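TA notes, week 10

Several of you asked for a full example with nothing omitted. So below is the full record: structure tokens for the whole chain, then the designed sequence directly under it. When grading your own attempts, check the secondary structure regions first.
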């Protein structure tokens, strides 16, 4: 998925490797019987010929939908897949985000939400085929288009999506782990995977042919005999799909049929009409063409994984919402009682053999009501605990987050300068993405003396005035920089975070910086042991714009009452939230349009449930959260 809707339908097909067991049009591809000689596979065959998909000897119409395992808690994979089944889909399409599976070099993660094999097995148990979009670049409105952020910390800088040998070596290592896991899950081996897509939207920018050929060769090496749907030379597909495909190799397929659209912070929520979406699908299916709904179910960008897009230039930055509802027929919480689901299901029913599974009921959503939170600590007060002292970096000039291994969230930059006689002008030409600036006398050691002087945002960067403060010492400068999500598409993909330029005060560059990487790994124990908690006085709310942690809890009195809910952040400003230590994402009601965050039941428990919020600016005046039973709030803002 990318921002330019128009070119997509053509480009998306670009590098689909179908796992055909043989291919009459491509006699050069050896060993037609190799793949289906596998005893487990039996006579299972999926291939492309005569401009059709063929499955086990019969023409096959793919009626699929995207549903990404990494946007749904694993306990709900089956629930969401069953809903996709009831929509009438026969195929599930998913990306594979490299950054989820290799969060740091050679640290392989395939558990929990990253347990792709379990997801694919459940899909198969429910009778789905699978189209796997293996990347390594995926776009997907996902941080850095699925690339691990540590790629941006490597020097000399890698050229992403190219045949740069240093980059290809890392791709080889990743696919060397991934593809052997995929091999037994291929259709011809008894698994659900009928096609593997290589790269994504290549050609809409970028033009490195050897890179694509390298990926195809890798797929062949690990997955065996494969039939590359664009022929031996993948390149011409970018000019025109059908014309350049080998004869008979172009089954009509709309690989991303948009059921809705993405929304960035600050935009109106994207909503598309159910009837016209259904009518468009009807048109495609009536031509015996295949279609894959993007999305069947969008889900949620939990944690720090949401991506971002740019407009005209690098500064024209737009971060994606936490919610990836996408106005898809299966809503973020699994809701199917909506017009779009009904309309699409009616169309799909006409092109399906037999009747579809019965219409599912919605999951119940609980309204747990208001939750009072209390101030626990200021971020600066607990900095020493959030930030391992050995992680503190001293540099002459600010450096990027990636270059010191702080991939997500926040990095605090501090420096100091001699006291001035009057106010000053501060400028930071390059901030990715948002910086809150504070000063205080360097000898004053308490947070009360911190003065907030303003926020610099990447999209509206300007210099601003620093007020005069009377100090008998130097003045300390604190710049808390937030990474709002790396670009996932376009020419500025190489999107490092942090302060990417010098910091200039009255025309002079500041030197000697200390960088504090903020980690939330031990958050709960830090907040528990922090003495401020006991003295915190909720009646005495300090409204200064200082990043602070707030904590509250709510009780669920019976295990049958553990249900999905939404937290409404109306009245709060901007931050991130954790429920029982699970990062449910960013809230930013001031920017909108999303004002509630989805809380899936599996992260809740019978008994006490703890909510911790990092609010970067001013809190709700009464320190209240509200646990509500609908996302309707999402739709009401900015309409
Ligand atoms: C969509 O179709 C349904 C069923 O045909 C109809 O009742 C409804 O009025 C239509 N809505 C719009 C907005 O066209
Ligand atoms: C679609 O397939 C059916 C059954 O094979 C055939 O009768 C019909 O003519 C096809 N329609 C088109 C538009 O190709
Ligand atoms: C005050 O800041 C300047 C500039 O960073 C530095 O050279 C000097 O050592 C600092 N003074 C003290 C007392 O820390």
């Amino acid at each position: 998925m990318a921002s330019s809707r128009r070119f997509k339908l053509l480009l998306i097909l670009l590098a689909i490797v179908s796992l055909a067991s043989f291919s009459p049009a491509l006699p050069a591809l050896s060993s037609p019987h190799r793949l289906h000689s596998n005893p487990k596979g039996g006579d299972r065959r999926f291939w492309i010929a005569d401009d059709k998909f063929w499955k086990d000897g019969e023409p096959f119409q793919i009626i699929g939908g995207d549903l990404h395992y990494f946007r749904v808690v694993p306990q709900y994979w089956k629930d969401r897949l069953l809903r996709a089944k009831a929509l009438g889909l026969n195929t599930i399409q998913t990306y594979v985000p490299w950054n989820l599976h290799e969060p740091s070099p050679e640290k392989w993660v395939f558990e929990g939400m990253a347990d792709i094999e379990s997801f694919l097995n459940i899909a198969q148990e429910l009778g789905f085929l699978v189209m796997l979009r293996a990347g390594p670049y995926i776009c997907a409105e996902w941080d850095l288009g699925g690339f691990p952020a540590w790629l941006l910390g490597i020097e000399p800088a890698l050229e992403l999506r190219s045949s740069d040998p240093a980059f290809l070596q890392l791709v080889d290592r990743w696919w060397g782990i991934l593809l052997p896991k995929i091999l037994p899950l291929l259709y011809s081996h008894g698994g659900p995977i009928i096609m593997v897509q290589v790269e994504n939207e290549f050609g809409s920018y970028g033009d490195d042919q050897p890179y694509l050929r390298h990926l195809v060769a890798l797929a062949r090496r690990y997955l065996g005999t494969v039939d590359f749907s664009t022929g031996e030379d993948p390149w011409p597909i970018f000019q025109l799909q059908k014309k350049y495909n080998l004869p008979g190799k172009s089954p009509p397929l709309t690989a991303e049929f948009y059921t809705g659209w993405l929304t960035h912070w600050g935009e109106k929520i994207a909503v598309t009409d159910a009837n016209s979406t259904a009518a468009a699908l009807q048109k495609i299916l009536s031509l015996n063409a295949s279609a894959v709904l993007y999305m069947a179910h969008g889900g949620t960008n939990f944690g720090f994984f949401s991506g971002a897009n740019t407009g005209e230039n690098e500064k024209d930055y737009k971060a994606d919402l936490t919610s990836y509802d996408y106005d898809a027929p299966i809503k973020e919480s699994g809701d199917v009682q909506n017009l779009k689901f009904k309309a699409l299901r009616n169309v799909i029913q006409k092109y399906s053999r037999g009747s579809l599974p019965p219409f599912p009921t919605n999951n119940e959503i609980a309204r747990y009501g208001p939750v009072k939170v209390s101030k626990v600590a200021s971020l600066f007060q607990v900095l020493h605990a959030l930030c391992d002292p050995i992680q503190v970096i001293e540099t002459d000039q600010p450096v990027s987050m990636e270059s010191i291994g702080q991939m997500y969230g926040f990095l605090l930059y501090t420096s100091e300068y001699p006291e001035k006689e009057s106010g000053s002008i501060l400028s930071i030409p390059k901030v990715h993405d948002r910086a809150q600036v504070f000063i205080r006398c360097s000898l004053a050691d308490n947070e009360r003396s911190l003065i907030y002087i303003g926020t610099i945002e990447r999209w509206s960067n300007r210099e601003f005035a620093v007020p005069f403060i009377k100090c008998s010492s130097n003045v300390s400068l604190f710049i808390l920089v937030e990474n709002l999500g790396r670009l996932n598409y376009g020419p500025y993909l190489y999107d490092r975070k942090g302060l990417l330029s010098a910091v200039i005060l009255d025309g002079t560059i500041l030197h000697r910086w200390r960088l504090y990487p903020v980690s939330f790994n031990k958050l709960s124990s830090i907040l528990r042991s922090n003495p401020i908690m006991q003295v915190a006085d909720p009646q005495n709310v300090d409204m200064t714009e200082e990043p602070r942690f707030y904590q509250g809890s709510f009780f669920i009195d019976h295990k049958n009452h553990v249900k999905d809910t939404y937290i409404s952040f109306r009245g709060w400003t901007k931050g991130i939230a954790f429920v029982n230590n699970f990062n449910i994402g960013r809230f930013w009601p001031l920017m909108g349009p999303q004002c509630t965050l989805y809380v899936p039941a599996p992260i809740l428990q019978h008994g006490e449930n703890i909510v911790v919020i990092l609010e970067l600016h001013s809190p709700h005046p009464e320190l209240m959260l509200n646990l509500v039973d609908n996302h309707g709030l999402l739709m009401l803002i900015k309409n």
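The CA atoms of residues 90 and 421 lie 72 Å apart. Use that as a sanity check on your answer.
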